[in-house]
Design a protein that fits this description.
The structure is a single chain. The chain is an alpha/beta fold. The protein has a single domain, classed as Rossmann fold, CATH 3.40.50. The protein has 7 helices and 11 strands. The longest helix is centred in the middle third of the chain and has 23 residues.
Length: 242
């Protein structure tokens, strides 16, 4: 991959595991809080696993899916995140511009929820989600470009009432990261760049993470005390997902 031309010094990681180890160094002060690490699959899982190992923390998943416009799936008209009560973030401007009906929106949302359910079952089976309420929670991905699904993920976690919510990523687009600061109590990112391009520019090895690798990592990190957090209302946040 060709990186964008810029005078900014780049942080380049060998792979996601190295990114996780370096990110863990910046989060080491949280070890005594016994944090809950929530990884965004698939790419965020190897990163988060390194952090969870270093901090002796519980590791679980937060699975968010883009809700794409039916005739242009890459254009996000919202996002949905799993949880005791799934959180939906709507991009009303895109919905109106594309002329998407409520029935069409709900149809795509239902499809993405089904995919979320399939992925959670594949990755962790019937293991109950870790309780979020009252805990220090660190949400991790391998990087942030637009921040669309991450915004939905943070709102979903916030709805479960953590004591403190931290977003931690190895690399991100500076403008997207700035927008996400409103969604978390703290943001940790060793490399935020105005000239970004794509997440893969910052990794020597950015190959896809297979489902079986995610499954293996999650089996190796059982949650010490898994319990479903108390359900809340099916919150729907207005405004764009990023």
């Amino acid at each position: 991959m060709r990186r964008p031309r810029t005078s900014e010094p780049y942080v380049v990681y060998r792979d996601r595991r190295e990114a996780g180890r370096r990110l863990a160094e910046t989060l080491a002060g949280y070890e005594s809080d016994h944090p809950l690490i929530l990884a965004a699959p698939r790419g965020g899982v190897p990163v988060a696993a390194e952090v969870a190992s270093r901090l002796h923390a519980d590791l679980d998943l937060v699975i968010a899916r883009k809700i794409g416009v039916p005739f242009q799936p890459e254009l996000a008209m919202g996002a949905v995140v799993d949880g005791p009560a799934p959180i939906t973030v709507r991009n009303e401007d895109v919905i109106a511009m594309a002329g998407v009906t409520e029935a069409e929106f709900q149809e795509v949302r239902s499809r993405e929820l089904a995919e979320i359910s399939r992925r959670r079952q594949r990755y962790v089976g019937d293991r109950a989600p870790a309780g979020v309420e009252g805990r220090l929670v660190i949400v991790i991905d391998d990087g942030i470009a637009t921040g669309a699904t991450m915004r939905a993920a943070l709102r979903a976690v916030r709805a479960q009432h953590p004591r403190k919510l931290v977003l931690a990523v190895p690399v991100a687009a500076a403008d997207s990261l700035d927008a996400l600061r409103r969604e978390a109590d703290e943001v940790v990112c060793p490399g935020a760049y105005k000239s970004f391009g794509a997440i893969g520019f910052f990794y020597s090895d950015f190959s896809a993470v297979p489902d079986e690798v995610v499954t293996g990592i999650m089996k190796a990190h059982p949650v010490a005390s898994s319990k479903i957090a108390p359900p809340g209302p099916d919150g729907v946040s207005q405004g764009g997902p990023g």
